[in-house]
Design a protein that fits this description.
Number of helices: 24
Radius of gyration: 27 Å
Keywords: Calcium, Hydrolase, Membrane, Metal-binding, Transmembrane, Transmembrane helix, Zymogen
Helix content: 25-40%
Family: Belongs to the peptidase S45 family.
GO molecular function, one term: hydrolase activity, acting on carbon-nitrogen (but not peptide) bonds, in linear amides
Strand order of the largest sheet: 1-31-2-3-7-8-9-10-18-19
CATH architecture of one domain: Orthogonal Bundle
Shape: globular
CATH class of one domain: Mainly Alpha
CATH topology of one domain: Penicillin amidase (Acylase) alpha subunit, N-terminal domain
Strand content: 15-25%
Structural class: alpha+beta
Number of strands: 31
InterPro entries: Ntn_hydrolases_N, Pen/GL7ACA/AHL_acylase, Penicillin_amidase_A-knob, Penicillin_amidase_dom1, Penicillin_amidase_N_B-knob, S45
Pfam family, one: Penicil_amidase
């Protein structure tokens, strides 16, 4: 017995020692991949020594003798800090995620291949200006120089993720950067999902479905069932075309995820310091590391500083010595679904204007980690590639015997968007910026500009040329065999939508449709936010940097301010006082809180929680009886719809009546029932004391690591979870997950914020949502996350002396042969 006990002790000690040895070994190899910011490296591809000066926040300031050397160093700096992220973004664009992630990433790869993201990127390389091609080559050489350093110095494979996801790191190519830009464009637009939603609403509620999605004054939508006789409303197959949020972010970006931003500026005559101000905050899914990376480049045209995306050699939002710019995704309808009829008895042919036509067909092999390679057949028509029914909800609106194809402006090979972005960095005034931006194709953007003489905005990007007799106007899928529905090409956004010298000296954009955009887009989801932003910046005659920061971090919900007085008009203080502990008293207490609330979506208050739960329950109660299973897929609030119903615009109050019940319910009854249902759910979660509830208890920002975020144990290290203020409609946007037990989990937001002051350029401020490094063991992995949550910033200067004075490390690059 004693002997057995001794052996058990020895085995236990041995297992502990082996575990410790494994942990130490793993830690050692992971630490090896942390870059030395004070190192000196001899590299091929530069003509003279280059310095990368790192600030205390790990922001690189790059100084070189030539622009080529500077872009080379930017590629090296991106690779030092974000190599795994860069390779994953490239794989997402190439359709090769399943090679490292396995079967779960196969649908994403399938869609990327069918969209032709990487193929079209390669085709557009030669369309760039020669100088831009040289920039792309220099940047690629810089990325590859760091990959060589990893191999030569045994630097832990460059990132710890590569030990868990075996990957031969291919050298970077110029087309890789173009592919990531196209992936960004595909991710920024949601037009396919909107078309599918409109078609499903037409099928589920032909008479009133338009109430949910139509813009004010928009003509009636066509009846989808009349376009395709025999089409029936169907519910999606769960688990096929509704991937969970983490799966959707496997490549950091994914087609049709959507993006937004705020961009606003004030001319010098409207500022206290006598110089123009500009603020910008692109809003994307929250990941760890975040999508953005701060950098400063010293180019021949002058210093440039701001936000970059690893893999793209451009400052997408920032300033140089004379010009500041910010980007906002524009709601141009840049995608159309066409429904093609397949020839009965011959799946290789489809109906064309001249009769049955053969699909253009090719096969591609998708390699899958841990499984056999998958062969897919890619088919195309004259309108674009065939998108299978399993993607983007297309199967729910597809008639029998038909397939769906996609036309998209980003699929055109002559895409000079990278030339536009590189030129923007070097532009010295608004007119020069507007001129180079006319090269933009995808994504479509509203670009806010500011220089010493004023401010302005320019709408850029390709616009589909649809015939005026198009059957749906691009609002929903149309028959592809009818010539009048087909695109007649693409063209730049109308020049008349550019305003480089507004009389007010103020410009603002949020992604909502702007005046004059009629016919270019059909989405008005950001209208309330745009109204709130204009109110804030027009209510002051004179602005300062601090007032712009306050506006950028504003957490007042204009939707709450608009809807609560309307929905609760006949509920406020209209009942006799009820006994404590009764449902009636709970409702009265909730209404009392909301009646005195200013709409601020503070994480410390209970009112935002009551409001969002009430509106979610209200919308569901309004549409459930009419839309059936479609109601399960409405993961966002449609405030214009609720406003239309409670104002009874064009008879929309009919939505308040429950079809299946004999009585005719009023909107006040539905509002009361929805509030009671919401309160019951919240009491079950947090108890009956309303005053103790906190919005931040459910509204928590989840910055998820796409590769490691779902791994037990590791997820606690790599994911960042923070309570946050704001909501879907606030200027400080904090979008909701929309599904599951906690639909108010914060999953999108301003992953980059910048406020640029041209009166005192060195006081311009910047922040990103996590940190500069993508290495979970780096102190710079999350060192900006808390600042970001609190609405704080870091100062970045174009003064070389200040950069060197605050240097936390200086990397020296020496040309080989010196």
């Amino acid at each position: 017995m004693v002997t057995l006990f001794r052996w058990l002790v020895r085995l236990t000690v041995g297992m502990i020692l082996l575990t410790l040895a494994f942990v130490v070994l793993a830690w050692y190899f992971a630490i090896r991949s942390l870059p030395d910011y004070d190192g000196t490296y001899v590299v091929q591809g530069i003509s003279a020594p280059v310095e990368i000066v790192r600030t205390t926040e790990d922001v690189p300031h790059i100084f070189g003798k030539s622009d080529r050397d500077v872009f080379f160093a930017l590629g090296l700096a991106h690779a030092q800090d974000r190599l795994f992220q860069m390779t994953v973004l490239r794989r997402a664009a190439q359709g090769r995620l399943a090679e490292i992630y396995g079967m779960g990433a196969l649908p994403a790869d399938d869609l990327a291949r069918r969209l032709g993201i990487y193929r079209n990127a390669r085709a557009s390389l030669q369309a760039q200006d020669p100088e831009v091609i040289e920039v792309l080559r220099a940047y690629s050489d810089g990325v590859n120089a760091w990959i060589q350093q990893i191999n030569l110095g045994a630097r832990g494979r460059g990132a710890p993720e590569f030990f868990l996801f075996p990957d031969d790191i291919a050298y970077w190519e110029p087309a890789d950067s173009l592919a990531i830009l196209k992936l960004l464009a595909a991710s920024s637009t949601v037009q396919v999902r909107r078309e599918v939603l409109r078609a499903r609403l037409s099928l589920a509620a032909p008479e009133r479905g338009q109430d949910m999605v139509a813009m004010p004054g928009e003509p009636p939508m066509p009846d989808y069932a009349s376009l395709f006789p025999g089409t029936r409303f169907t519910a999606p197959k769960r688990g096929t075309d509704t991937p969970d949020w983490t799966t959707a972010l496997a490549g950091y970006l994914s087609p049709s995820l959507g993006a937004s931003a705020n961009g606003f500026a004030a001319a010098a005559r409207r500022t206290a310091a006598g110089g123009a101000l500009l603020a910008n905050d692109p809003q994307f899914p929250l990941t760890a590391p975040g999508l953005w990376y701060l950098a400063r480049l010293e180019l021949g045209s002058g210093g440039v500083i701001g936000g970059t995306i690893p893999g793209i050699p451009a400052v997408l939002s920032g300033r140089n010595t004379r010009l500041a710019w910010g980007v906002t995704p524009a709601q141009i309808d840049d995608q159309d679904i066409f429904i093609e009829e397949v020839q009965p008895g011959d799946p290789n042919r489809y109906r064309g204007p001249q009769g049955w036509t053969a699909f253009s067909t090719r096969r591609e092999i998708l390699r899958v980690r841990g499984a056999e390679p998958q062969t897919i057949t890619m088919r195309e028509t004259e309108n674009g590639p065939v998108i299978p029914a399993s993607h983007l909800g297309i199967g729910t609106i597809l008639p029998p015997g038909h397939v769906a194809v996609l036309s998209w402006t980003g699929a055109f090979g002559e895409d000079r968007s990278m030339t536009a972005l590189i030129g923007l960095m070097q532009a010295q005034d608004r007119q020069a910026a507007a001129t180079t931006l006319r090269n933009m194709v995808a994504p479509a953007l509203t670009v806010t500009l500011a220089d010493g003489n004023g401010v302005g905005q320019v709408l850029v990007g390709a616009v589909p040329q649809r015939p005026s007799v198009h059957q749906t106007g691009g609002r929903m899928p149309a028959p592809g065999w009818i010539v009048q529905n087909r695109w007649q090409g693409i063209a730049p956004a109308p020049a008349e939508l550019t305003d480089l010298a507004p009389e007010s000296g103020i410009v603002a954009a949020t992604g909502a449709a702007l005046p004059g955009m009629t016919g270019l887009g059909y989405d008005w989801a950001d209208r309330f936010r745009l109204d709130r932003l204009r109110l804030l910046i027009n209510s002051r005659e004179v602005h300062s940097r601090d007032s712009f920061i306050a506006a950028q971090n504003d957490i007042v919900s204009p939707v709450a301010r608009a809807l609560l007085p309307l929905v609760g008009a006949e509920l406020w203080f209209t009942e006799e006082p009820a006994a404590q502990g009764t449902p009636e008293r709970l409702r009265q207490d909730a209404l009392a809180l909301l009646a005195n609330w200013d709409g601020a979506m503070s994480e410390h208050l209970p009112e935002p929680l009551i409001y969002v739960a009430w509106m979610r329950a209200l919308q569901d109660r309004l549409v459930r009886d009419d839309l059936g299973p479609l109601a399960d897929d409405l993961n966002e609030l449609f405030p214009e719809f609720i406003d239309r119903v409670f104002r009874n615009i064009d008879g929309a109050a009919v939505w308040c009546d429950i079809r299946q019940s004999a009585p005719v319910e009023t909107c006040t009854q539905i509002a009361r029932q929805a509030l009671d249902a919401a309160l019951l759910d919240l009491v079950a979660r947090f108890g009956p004391d309303l005053a103790s509830w906190r919005w931040g208890d459910l509204h928590r920002a989840r910055h998820v690591h796409p590769a490691l975020g779902d791994m037990r144990g590791i997820s606690y290290i790599v994911n960042l979870i923070q309570p946050t203020s704001g909501g879907e409609a606030t200027i400080a946007q904090a979008g909701f997950l929309g599904t599951g037990r906690n639909p108010w989990l914060n999953v999108t937001g301003a992953t980059y914020r910048g406020v640029y002051d041209l009166a005192d350029p060195d006081s311009s401020v910047f922040i990103i949502s996590t940190g500069q490094s993508g290495h979970p063991f780096s102190r710079h992995y999350d060192d900006m996350a808390e600042l970001w949550r609190r609405g704080e910033y870091v100062v970045m200067s174009l003064d070389p002396a200040l950069a060197r004075a605050a240097a936390a490390g200086i990397t020296h690059l020496q040309p080989a042969g010196d």
